[in-house]
Every structure is written in structure tokens, then in C-alpha cells.
Amino acid sequence: MRPPTVVMQITRLEAAHLSGLVGQFAELLRDSGRDGDPAIARLAPSAYAEDPDADREFRELTQSDLLDRRGADAAVVLTSLSEASRIPEDPADPALLEETEVRLDPDAAQAWLRTLAAVRLVLATRLGVAEADDRDSDDPRFGVYDWLGYRLDGLVAALDRPD
């Protein structure tokens, strides 16, 4: 049985910020050169850490396809956010905080899960988070990292909910 459509409530401002993050993520995937960037390496982790030759060969065969699929998932997220992320230019406009619905069919919900997790991995890499204890709750840079985790947890909970 396929999971039902997920309906996510999100403010227009949140949708705009998320759209911006996912857009930057998609740009990273396109423009990275795909080698040498620790965030890209974290998105396509080592398959054979003990055997550098086998690992290099595995990466050559799989990394490009994996990153292309991540880019396709990001495009699904951006498409589903296109209406919700339209915001007024006036920062005092109350429409910024207007809640809107984003409807995700099962395939889109899976693309969202993969993309939010991947964007969070990129942020973790940029922030130096390798383990849960590496996180500094007093550092304001972790606000976006935490917010992505909140959205990811909510999506997982919605998908795990019994019919």
C-alpha cells in the first residue's frame, strides 16, 4: 500500500528560505567539480575505506549518478515549493508569516526526505559536525541545521503515521 499524500503547513517565509537552501544545494551539486569538496564527499561516502583503489573505482562508477539523482530530488523539492515560496518584497508584510500548504505525493515526499537529509549533511560538513556531540546549541549558525532537522522529523512522522 502506498503512503498517502502528505500535507505540510509552512509559512511563506520558511518556504522561501527552504527554497533558497535547496537552490544553493542544487547549485553545489552542479558546480562543485565533484571532487575535493568535503560536503560532496559526505554525500557520497566511501564504500571501501580500507582499499583506496577499489574506493576510487567505485566512486568513478557511482558518484556522478548519485549526485545527479540528488539534483533531481532537489528539483522536485523546488517545484513543490514554487507557489509557497512566493513572498512580498515588503519585509513588514504579514503575508510573509502566512501559513500555506505544500502537498506531497509519495514520490515527492521521498524526494523531500532525501533532499532535506542531504542539505543537512552539507550544513553539518560546513559546520564541522561529525558526531551529535559536535553541535553547539549556543552557536546561532546551528539554527538552520536544527530547523532542517525539525522539518525532516515532521516529514518522517507524517510518513510513518498509520492510515
Per-chain topology:
Elements: E1 6-11, H1 12-31, H2 38-43, H3 52-81, E2 99-104, H4 106-127, H5 142-160
Low-confidence stretches: none
Mean pLDDT: 89
Number of beta strands: 2
Percent in strands: 5-15%
Radius of gyration (Å): 17 Å
Query: SSE order, as H and E?
Result: EHHHEHH
Overall geometry comes to globular
Q: What percent of residues adopt helix (DSSP H or I)?
A: 55-70%
Biggest β-sheet description: 2 strands, antiparallel
Q: Strand order within the widest sheet?
A: 1-2
The helix/strand class is mainly alpha
How far apart lie the N and C ends?
Answer: 10 Å
Number of distinct helices = 5
How would you characterize the overall build of this protein?
This protein has 5 helices and 2 strands, in the order βαααβαα. α1 runs antiparallel to α3 (52-81) and α3 crosses α4. It has helices at residues 12-31, 38-43, 52-81, 106-127, 142-160; strands spanning 6-11, 99-104. 60% of the residues lie in helices and 7% in strands. It has a two-stranded antiparallel sheet with strand order 1-2. It is globular, with a radius of gyration of 17 Å.
Describe what is shown at a glance:
The protein is mainly alpha-helical. It has helices at residues 12-31, 38-43, 52-81, 106-127, 142-160, and strands spanning 6-11, 99-104. It has a two-stranded antiparallel sheet.
